[in-house]
Amino acid sequence: MSTSRIRKEVDEALLAFVDRQRPALLAISDDLAPLLSALDALLTGGKRLRPAFCYWGWRAAGGEDGADGADLVQAAASLELLQASALIHDDVMDSSDTRRGQPSVHRRFEALHGAQSWPGDAEAFGAGAAILLGDLCLSWSSEMFETCGLGGDRRRRARAVYDLMRTEVMCGQYLDMLEGTRGEATAATALRVVEFKSAKYTIERPLHMGAALAGARPDVTAALTGYGLPLGIAFQLRDDVLGVFGDPAETGKPAGDDLREGKRTVLIALTLERASAAQSTALRRRLGDPALDRPGVDELRSIIEDTGGLAACETMIERYLGEAERALRTAPITEEARRALAELAVAATARST
Amino acid sequence: MSTSRIRKEVDEALLAFVDRQRPALLAISDDLAPLLSALDALLTGGKRLRPAFCYWGWRAAGGEDGADGADLVQAAASLELLQASALIHDDVMDSSDTRRGQPSVHRRFEALHGAQSWPGDAEAFGAGAAILLGDLCLSWSSEMFETCGLGGDRRRRARAVYDLMRTEVMCGQYLDMLEGTRGEATAATALRVVEFKSAKYTIERPLHMGAALAGARPDVTAALTGYGLPLGIAFQLRDDVLGVFGDPAETGKPAGDDLREGKRTVLIALTLERASAAQSTALRRRLGDPALDRPGVDELRSIIEDTGGLAACETMIERYLGEAERALRTAPITEEARRALAELAVAATARST
Description:
2 copies of one chain form a homodimer. Chain A is an all-alpha fold. The first copy, chain A, has a single domain (3-348), classed as Farnesyl Diphosphate Synthase (Orthogonal Bundle). Chain A contains 16 helices and 2 strands.
C-alpha cells in the first residue's frame, strides 16, 4: 500500500475502534462525552509514523495485504492509541498548552471547567481528566492490539515486542524527565534517553511488531534493527531541531516550545559543550523559563547556531541517517519494502513536512 | 485454597512478575531503580481483594487448583497491578500524601528530588514520576494477564471482561472527579459513580474474569452479578464510612482523609440531604479543605452522625449486603465457592479488618 493509503486505513481502523467504544461510554453517562470529543480531536492529527513502520515491518517479513493485512492494520493502528496516551500524559507532565495545533487535553478540560463555572479547581480537574483519558488510551491500545485477529504464535511473539516497547518508552520518558530536572545532561546521556524514549519506540519496535506478526526470520528482525535504530535516533534529533527552529504551522506547537519547557535534548547538550561561559550562562538562565517570549527564543536560537551546536546536531543526523541507509541496502527483504523504508527514512528526518 | 493461601500465591506471582522485569529496567539504567523500589513498597500492602474474587469466580464456575490454577493465579494477580496503577494516579489527582501507611508515590519521588538537591521543580518531578509508574503498572497488568498461560477462547472471553472493566473503572473515576468538582452530588448520582468505579471494578468483573477463564455458563455469570454488584456497592459504602471514621492504622490514610480531599461520597450526599441549613453550611465550608485539622475532622464527623447520614449509610450497607447474600444462597455454584464468597462478603464490608 502507498503511504497515503496506509494512513487512510489506519485512520479508518482507529475511528472504527473508537466508534465501538462510544456507545458503551455514553450508556454509562452523557457526562463522558467530553472524553470522547477530546480523543476524536487528538486522533485527527498525527503522521501515523508508527503504524507505517509496523506495516512495512510486516511487508518486509513477507506479510501481504488482504484479509490478514486488515488485521495487521488494526494492530498497527493500536500504536496510535499508545502514542495518544503518551502525548496526553507528556503534556500534563510538561504543562504544555498545545498539541497538534490544538489545546492540549488537560487545557481542554480546564477550559470546560471554566465554561461550566464549576466551583472546584479547574487546573486540577484538567490534569485529572487528562491522566484518566491517557489511561483509557493506554488500555484501549492493548485492547485494539489483542483483538486484531492475527492469532497464535505470531501474536504471542508480537506481544512480547509490544510489551517490551511499552516498558522501554515509559522508562525512557522517566529518564528524560530526570535529565531535565537534574539539568546536567551530556550528549551521551541524552542519546541514551533518545534510544529508549524515541528510537526504539517510534521505529525499531513498530518494525519488529509488524515483522513478528508476519513470522519474521531472525535475520530480518536483526536487519530491521540495523536500519530502525539509527533512523530512530536521527528522527528524534530532527524532532529536537524542529522543537527549537520549526514552523509552528508544521510542528503544531508554538515557536521554540522545547526551549520554554527546558527540554535537555542532544541539541542542547551539543550546544552547551561548545558554548563560551557567557553563552552557557545565558542559555542556562533562560532555558525552561515558561515566560520565554519571542525575543528570548530568538536569543537562544542564536546561541544554538553560533556555538555550532546546531551544525553538530545536523552532522549527527546525517551520520545516523547514512547508517540506516547502508543497513537497508543489504537487508534481506523485498525490493518493495526496501524502497518504502528508504522513503520513510527521508520523510522521518525531513527538515519540514 | 484458603484466603491466606490465595494471598500468598498472589504475592508470589506478583513478585515473580516484577522480578522478571527488574533486570530489563536496570539494564536500561540504574537510574530506574527508584521506580522499582516505589512499586515494591506499594505492592507490599493491599488486601488482594480483587484477585480473591477472581479466584472464587474461577472456582464457582468449576475451575480447579493445579496447573491451570497456577495460571489463574497469575491472571488474578494482574488485577493488583491494575489497582496499583489506579492508586498511584488517584493519589496524584487527589494530591494525597499517604497510601497504605506510606508516602504516596508522587510524594516519594518529590522526596527523592529533595534528597538529591536536584535543581528542577520537585513537585512536578514527583507527579511526573508517579504518572509514568502508574502507566508502567497499567501496561504490566495487561502483560501479566495476557501471558498467564490460559489460552484460547477462555482467555478471549476473559479479556473482553478485563477490557470492559478497565474502561468502566476509568470512566467511573472521571465521573467521581466530576462530581467532586461540581460539588452537587446527590445520593443517586454518587451511587452511579460507585457502581462503575468500585462495585463492578472491585467485585463483579473480577468474579466474571475468573468465571470466564473457567468457561462459565451464562447462568453462573448472571448469579455472580446478582451477588457481586450489590456487594460491591456495600463494599464502597463501607470504604466511604472508613474514609471518615476509620482507624488510620487500618486504613493506611490519616484520620478523616476523605473529608480533607472533599470526596463527594454517598455518605456525604446522605448527610447533606438530612442536614439543617446550619449543618449544611458548616459541612460544605470545611469539606475539601486541605488544612482540615483534627478538631475540624471531629466537627464534620459529628455533623455526619447527628444528621443521621451515618445511620442511613449503614442501613444501605446492610440492605445491599443482604441482597448479595440472598443472591448467593441460590447461585448455581459449588458449596465450597458459596461458603468462600459468603466469608468474602463479610470481610469486604467489615467495620474493621
